[in-house]
Design a protein that fits this description.
Elements (H helix, E strand, L loop, with lengths): L4 E4 L8 E7 L3 H6 L2 E2 L10 E9 L2 E11 L10 E7 L2 H13 L3 E2 L4 H8 L5 H12 L3 H11 L2 H25 L4 H37 L1 E6 L6 H9 L17 E7 L2 E7 L15 H10 L2 E7 L6 H9 L5 E6 L16 E3 L8 H11 L16 H22 L4 H19 L5 H9 L6
Helix pairs in contact: 4-5, 5-7, 6-7, 6-13, 7-12, 9-10, 12-13
Bound molecules: guanosine-5'-diphosphate and magnesium ion.
């Protein structure tokens, strides 16, 4: 980790300002080689300076330079940020000069990775940084900022604090086995802590579903046979002419996608019609393909045509949807009804995409299905990464086995092993213990320069 790294931290393109970031032991020394202005070694930390980036006495750019000296910096290393003029040529030239004088090009997320490895932030907070950058909605921004600033980590710390207490109690018990009543007291303590863990973990996991919803949005597929009005519906939902509506069956060729916000939650919609490629398949609904899409979705909008009877393909798909959240949309309700619905448990919403009727009712039904109105405005402390959720689920399993263990009078030192396992798994969530592969995997998903 001795390398001094450099990267462009702003989006590369034409813009007023670019920021090139340098971090590492030699940051000040390397930047000094291409800098004309105050001596950077002498300036106080966290100060900003006016000067020039130069190469062999030629001026490359007029810049402002921020000097942040170790250890109170994002990476805990010396950091210099060069605010240059924007634009591809200048920005790249400055980066090039830095690399020429001894910097290494940073890997994606390497600044944040150093912040983590140097103990400045934990793994949940690092994931929060990434989520904040990729947040598309106000709700997901809220979620990310709470994660980044440690509120979510605190949930884990609280659980661990309870564990420490009971584990140390067991240690005492093992050290002084001659006090018989200590054993009874210890079992009681374990039981109490375990009940606490059980309730808390359950609560966090339940809330985490909301967290994923806020973070990932609802992936929605619009399925149905050609000409039922899928593209028309998507247009209505998007309130723009994005999907091309046509009265020749199956002529929508492209996968048409679009996002809308429902109560601040992103609904990402895909008109699956574009997946049918060959002309002779036009009349078929593509049972297999549709089911593949349905499998990947969080929500299925199944569109039927009010003025036609159901086809075998449609019945087949409905049979196989299972418990996937689904809304049956009876479109063309402005026309004479010929459709006969079999007994079904799915909610049904009649609409007319043509006349723009029933669209609000559909939105309401979606909100109801995902309990969107129940998402609390004030509390955005949710565990939201798949990684941490799966670790917490492992904790939940162990908690259950401890519960059984107490009942079947398993020796205390066996219970202690389980408690310590929970402690370790919780440690993995915040990144107290980690493998190199995991860390590489997490940070490789970051942007360059972050
Ligand atoms: N009468 C009526 N026609 C509709 C309605 N929705 C769509 N259509 C018409 O049905 C045809 C097929 O619509 P389209 O959205 O392209 O269907 P898709 O093949 O499922 O994407 C077009 O001519 C639309 O104008 C509706 O609610 N009522
Ligand atoms: Mg279409």
């Amino acid at each position: 980790m001795k390398d001094t790294i450099a990267a462009i931290s702003t989006a590369l393109g034409v813009g007023a300002i670019s920021i090139i970031r340098v971090s590492g032991e030699d940051a000040i020394e390397i930047v000094s080689k291409i800098w004309k202005g105050k001596n950077l070694k002498d300036v106080p930390t966290h100060t900003i300076h006016y000067g020039f980036i130069v190469s062999q006495d030629k001026t490359i750019d007029e810049v402002l330079l921020t000097v942040m000296k170790s250890p109170k910096t994002f990476t805990k290393e010396d950091i210099i940020e060069i605010n240059s003029h924007g634009g591809i040529a200048t920005t790249n030239r400055i980066l090039e000069l830095l690399l020429l004088h001894g910097c290494r090009l940073a890997e994606p997320g390497e600044f944040t990775k150093r912040a983590f490895l140097n103990g400045r932030i934990d793994l949940i907070e690092a994931e929060g940084v990434m989520d904040l950058i990729s947040a598309k909605t106000e709700k997901s921004r809220n979620l990310a900022i709470n994660q980044m600033t440690g509120q979510v980590s605190n949930l884990i710390h609280e659980l661990r604090n309870q564990l420490v207490e009971v584990i140390s109690n067991i240690e005492v018990n093992i050290d002084y086995p001659e006090y018989e009543d200590i054993e009874v007291v210890t079992i009681e303590k374990i039981q109490k802590t375990n009940q606490y863990l059980k309730a808390k973990i359950e609560e966090i996991l339940k809330k985490s579903e909301t967290g994923s919803l806020i973070k990932e949005g609802i992936k929605t597929v619009i399925v149905g046979k050609p000409n039922v009005g899928k593209s028309s519906l998507l247009n209505r939902l998007l309130e723009e002419e994005k999907a091309i509506v046509t009265d020749i069956a199956g002529t929508t060729r492209d996968i048409v996608e679009g996002d809308i916000l429902l109560d601040g939650i992103l609904l990402h919609m895909i008109d699956t019609a574009g997946i049918r490629k060959t002309r002779d398949q036009v009349e078929s609904i593509g049972v297999k393909k549709s089911l593949e899409w349905i499998k990947k979705a969080d929500l299925v909008l199944f569109v039927l045509n009010n003025e036609e009877e159901m086809t075998l393909e449609e019945e087949e798909i409905l049979k196989q949807i299972g418990d996937k959240p689904t809304i049956l949309i009876i479109n063309k309700s402005d026309l004479l009804a010929k459709l006969k619905l079999p007994e079904l448990t799915f909610p049904v919403v009649p609409i007319s995409a043509l006349k723009n009727e029933g669209i609000d009712e559909l939105k309401e039904k979606i909100k109801e299905l995902f309990h969107l109105e129940e998402i609390e405005q004030s509390d955005y402390t949710y565990l939201s990464s798949a990684r941490s959720i799966s670790l917490l689920k492992k904790c939940q399993n162990i908690v259950e086995s401890i519960e059984e263990g107490i009942e079947s009078q398993v020796p205390i030192d066996m219970l202690e092993i389980d408690l310590k396992n929970i402690w370790n798994l919780l440690g993995e969530i915040i990144g107290e213990t980690y493998t190199e592969e995991l860390v590489d995997e997490i940070f490789s998903r970051f942007c360059l320069g972050k």
